[in-house]
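Q: Fold this one first, please.
A: Sequence and structure below.
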Amino acid sequence: MSILYFIVQQTMFFAIPLLIVALGGMFSERSGVVNIALEGIMVMGAFISIFFINIFQNTLSGQGLLLLAILIAGVSGGIFSLLHAFASINLKADQTISGTALNMFAPAVAIFMARMIQGVQQIQFTDTFHIAKVPVLGDIPLIGPMFFQNCYITTYIGVAIYILSNILINNTKFGLRLRACGEHPQAADSVGINVYKIRYAGVIISGVLAGIGGLIFVIPTSTNFNGSVAGYGFLALAVLIFGQWRTRGVLGAAFFFGIMKTLASTYSGIPVLKDLPISNEVYKMIPYMATLIVLACVSKNSQAPKAAGIPYDKGSR
């Protein structure tokens, strides 16, 4: 049972950031703007928030510092995503090129700023955020050791973000308008909906969630940030496609890829896998092989929002 608890705990560390970032991409694409820049936004959110932790970890500690860092990561990601929103919505630039530019820009800026400020590109921090056991809940048989021991508060924040996103997309007026602007922008404009504002809101929400996802990815898996989030932004795009741009599908896809990543990263701690005559390079390839296989299988049946990637012009109706 201890092996099962270990796998579930590790899966949460890898799946929750994927879930949050993929949900961010969903908000943007459902509004009609393809956000290829998720990787760069994750890097920027992680860089600024980890640097904040590095500065204030001697003054603050524990969950209060982490919550402040999450807030800063979200704000940073939202502001950085405005560059993509302006280029895509106002300038009607190619959204793939705009996103790719931000993906190239973010790690370069993060490394340059880190070296300029502290002399090295790695930003160190002390992990004071680990929760050995949640009071009361951690004592529940079976569920307690899986979800409420050896955990981080970021796991529960990720679950809360999923629930709120599901409600916002499917059960609110804003969600209806967001989907209308992504699928039929001319029709939405004809009934008085400001398509530009709705698309800006979708991209900004996407940036906020991607920035938070960048921090949530780094915290449980490392004690330093070196300008990279290991391609998680691109993997989140795969999760979004696999999940068919729907909240429930994204949830299932995120945990599928989270399990694949867990097997690749922690196989040495799982006796059954460790004893197999397979090199560690093969295990490291598992998440990316699974990504290619899954995308190949679902690409023919994928149903992206109709207007995603197509610039909207008020004069087109």
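Q: Good. Now the second chain.
A: Here it is, same layout.
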Amino acid sequence: MTRRTQIGGKTSRRRFLSGAAMAGAAMVAAPSVVKAQGPVSMRWQSTWPSKDIFHEFAQDFAKKVNDMTGGDLRIEVLPAGAVVPAFGLLDAVSQGTLDGGHGVMVYHYGKQTALALWGSGPGFAMDANMLLAWHKYGGGRELLAKLYESIGANVVSFPYGPMPTQPLGWFKKPVAKPEDIQGLKFRTVGISIDVFTALGAAVNALPGGEIVAALDRGLIDAAEFNNASSDRVLGFPDVSKICMLQGYHQNAETFEILFNKGKFDGLPEAMKAIIANAVESASADMSWKAIDRYSTDYREMQTADSVKFYKTPDAILKRQLEVYDEVVKKKSAENPMFKEVLLSQLTFAERATRWEQDTVVNRRMAFDHYFGRDGVAKEF
């Protein structure tokens, strides 16, 4: 072997190693190049007024995702009406006008009646947390995807955020029997539209931000929305001093996080996993925050706002159940997918609620023991 060949061999090896090093450096640097393109930005809208605690819940979710991704995904949440009306959210997200949104599935009742089974009705004795258990482990997730596909909605949906039982509503005077609802101009949404219509009310489905103004102007006589914090900040105590607590019309409801499917599918897998976990994190945090805030505003409405709360009489609750059964029987006959969701919920609820009723102690005895029926707390 000549010296030139040896030198040439060394030169070739140097060139090869140099090229390999550059290629390796390029591979290492590749993620930085992707990151240098900037974070993914999403423009969302909620179905809630900016002052409502529900809009705060939407912002809480966005912040969790923004924080968990280190800013690589940035979600901005606008209030209802900023881009589209509250009831227009599903179409706006599906069409890509918005990248995502925060709302409730009962608002889509007019597009596919079965979607309201994630929010309006007695939940077949399930609370909202059990409804979410059915969704994740009892077949609900697959059924929801099937429902959205049936109406051509180009979305990815994440139900989350179990809501406590909602009040029957705000009235001019207490209602004592089912007949007291007859003839009232009443606001509600979802399957509850059919339930209250069957009870004799003239129903008007309004988004949250429009209810108090309608009550104030006499366009409606009574209305239900959701909870002490939302109702208080939206101004219900300014137009009514009578609130009837408890009802089966919306005993188990959840929020919904919506993504435009094309936008969501285009995200890296790791980012999709972060979103899925952020949904469950936000769900837990929302339910804890609700306990703190709702209980505080419930007390404030009684003291500062002079609101009188009454328990909905059993006669009305029983009639709600009877009417609901009639409504869903009719809907099942009209819509095979409605019946499919209904039967899936019933199957899960029979097992889950029997377990709950048999194993979970009724806390009323403990409440009376420590705080008393007269409202005087036990001293130690």
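Q: Anything worth noting on the second one?
A: The radius of gyration is 27 Å.
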